[in-house]
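>> received
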Amino acid sequence: MILYRIVLVVFFFFVSFMAFSQKNSFGLEFGRTFQNDFGVHQLDSVVVIPNGNESFDSRVIGGFFELSLSNRFSLHSKLNFTKSAVFYLMYNSVKECLFCPVVKAPSMAINRLSFEILPQFSIVRLNKFQFIVFGGVKATINFVKDQPESNFKDAPAAAIVTNSLTSAPLPVTMSYVYGTSLEYSERVVVWARWTANSLYSRDIAIQGENYKFENRWKSFTISAGYKFHSLKVKKAKKRTKVH
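>> returned
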């Protein structure tokens, strides 16, 4: 896949510059992400819609490392953790059907660990402020949390569909990322970034029959962080008394 190759190339580029960059920085990041899921699926007579095609927001926490390549260019990387979930809206498309009756909205918790590689360029500098643009790639590991099997007494077939959905998320997803940041005094940073529309699920099997279940997501994240340029603590100089 082309996107996987891009990640590998940029990663080795990132590692090679670690030894030569003279001005590195790192820090912590906190924020919030707003995710939109897209997909409408017909599973026999049951229609399944992830998150009802509406947005879902969650907290983001992580860290970043930045390699300065020149006065304007730098290579920024992030490692972020997000607790998320997918809510599935289900309903019947016909009255007499195999999965009748179905009117449910089950949920599935997913924890996500994302690694981003973002080349960036400082386009405006004004006093202690910098306005930066960036774009790159993101690899996300999806961890589906173990949860008890659903057992809808009034709709047993819906429970079968729901329990099959846990195998739908891809273990690793790839996305393009782009955005802007505002930096103050080379310390405080605020980011606004967009994750492009990308595939995050695969086909599922229900009672031995395969169904297409390709869903996509995109997101917007707003976050803030603080840069450290060294772990060393400056010692106060001792004053010598003159007698």
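>> Helices lie at 2-18, 156-164.
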